[in-house]
Amino acid sequence: MSQQSHLDGLVLRLIGEIHSHLLSKKKPLEILKESIENLAKASNCKYGFLGILDHQDGIKNYKYLVEKKASLNTLNLFNKSMLDSALPFKEVSKAYYFLKYTENLSEPIISYDEDRLVKGLPWSSHLLIPILFQKELIGVVGLCDKKGEFDEDYALQLQPLIDTYKLVISQIDDKVDTAPQEDSSFQESFDLMVNIDKLWNIQRGNFAWEEKLGRSKEHIMDYVFGSDYELLENIILKAKSTMTTQSEKIRFKRDKHRIFTLMVKVIYQSTTRSFKIIGKDISDRFRQESILKKQQDRLRHTQLLLQKSNNELDALIYHISHDLRAPLASALGLVFVSQQENEMEEVKSQLQLQQKSLEKMDNFISEILEFARIARTPNENVTIDIEQLIKDTVTSTSKALDVEFEVNITSNQNFPFVSDIKKVTSIAQNIIHNAFQFRSRNRFHDTNLLNISINVEENDTCIIFEDNGIGIPQEYIHRVTEIFFRAHTEYVGSGIGLYIVEQAIKRLRGHLSIISRVDQGTTFIVWLPNHYFKRELF
Question: Which part of the chain is the Histidine kinase domain (predicted)?
Answer without folding.
Answer: 319-532
